[in-house]
Amino acid sequence: MKLGINFEACFPNEERGTLEEYLSGIDKFDLLKMGSFFLGFNTEKSRYSDIVHFLNMYFSPENSDFAQTIYTNILQYVENAPYPIEFYEVPYPVSSLKLFEFIFDHIPDDQTTTKTNEEIEQDTFKAYVLLNQITITERDIISKQIREENNLSFTAAQALLQISFHNNDIINFRVEKLYECQFKRALFYFEFLSQREDCQPLLDTFYAHYEVTGYKDYLRRLFGIVYSVLMMNKESHVEIHLEEQESKAFIDKHIAKEDELITEVDFLKVRSNPLYKFEEDKYRIISPLFTIEMIYNGLFFRLKAINNQLQNGDKVPGFYNLKTYQFSEQYVLSRLLKEIYGNRYIQKSGSELDGIMDGAPDYYMRNGKYVHVYESKDILISKESKQSFDYRDLENELKIKLFENEKGSAKAVRQIVETIRKILNGEAVYDPNIPLVKVQIFPVLILHYRMFNAAGLNSVINTWFVEELARLEELGMDISRVHDLVIIDVETLMFNKDALVKKKTTMQKALLEYEKDYLRFNLANARPRPRSQEEANKLFENSLLPFSFYLDNKIEKLGYKRSGKDLLEKASILFEEEE
Fold this sequence. Notes:
single chain; alpha/beta; five-stranded mixed β-sheet; 27 helices; 10 strands
């Protein structure tokens, strides 16, 4: 995690202006291009992450003295900061998105350029680091003020979760993983809906709205948009120039409308329409990330909007529950775990277990004395809680959705503990041969959105789990062979499925290793030993990283090469002739 350079670091003796002042006197067309240029930077290993490279790229020779002064000021700022300059950078995706929103919504369409090139470079840079000041520094100040006023003290995991959750899905992603999983999930979703007779009117209306012949045609056309992002060969804005009339009609349904405001909490409108038209038949990507996420994340909401407009006879009832339960849990998760575990061991899917007893886990696997129990929750956190300055808002909603709801009903954590109670009490009738005297139970919570891959989250949720598990010990049960709760997002399972099938590692080994090296990290056992307090702090922070980070890197360190063959095989179906 890098730290954003703010206005006060660059201009310590200058009074802050406003975005309106800094962005005045510059043609709106050029400002929008600049905004999409910032959003084209890589979030991983960007060459512009280095401050010197960024300043050399951004400023022309005429502004060399201005750039040098900025760099000198930054060096002085960092001298009094807790981290060396290598930890700091100018580009920050949240600021880039807010900059684009502001330009799109607040700069007059007829604004023309009256400033010189030198002035434009200086003022747009000031606008950007001002946004860093607002979105990073001032956010931290307000959050700290709330903690102090309410006499709140947080654990390291809670503090890190507050810092990371609101922007984690925007700054931490891998393009190849994101694309592969978005594509596969969209394909699975269409296949699932197509098999249901009650979903045919919805699908027919959806295809008519997007003027496509079916889901293969829809995904093909969407692939045409996303392809431009995947083929980016430099960090810059991405343009799409169209010639086919059919493609124009399709892409026009995915663009930000000039007569509508796009500013919204958590960038929800840009997420829905992550492109804009800058000339006839010419489009520019606003956000490469959101463009890829249109494939699946945006699909449900597009279908939901159309379903809401259907007549009652054609409307799919309980459309949200259909996705979260029957699709996400029974269709996708059961399918993935069955492929990962193969035809070995004792396995029961959620649908099988539901037919045997109430309150069973969503998936169950036993290999001798080793039991894996899975609970699946396809949930989202509200934009207000996600972006709140008060950590309590986030934790309260997490508890409602993952521990106990407003009515006192058990959710994920309590459901898993109840499953463990039944197993230890010999009440798990779906597997009567569990060796109770030596059974080891590995609880896993599956979540279905990347936002939950935030540093500190697993540790926070596992604390609730450990506290709830202690209640079983108070009842006289032996919980010594119950392992910590591991949170896994479904895309990490999907992305690493082939490596797990080929036994590069196993779920058993991965769960044990993550528990030992992350959830139960002990500095005394760290090898090599940290040489300074800074290194020790870094090791501890790393122990709070999510399972997704651990497994993706573990698989690659084991020498597994991701060929993309599975994705190509899946994608080939789109180019088969329609029957």
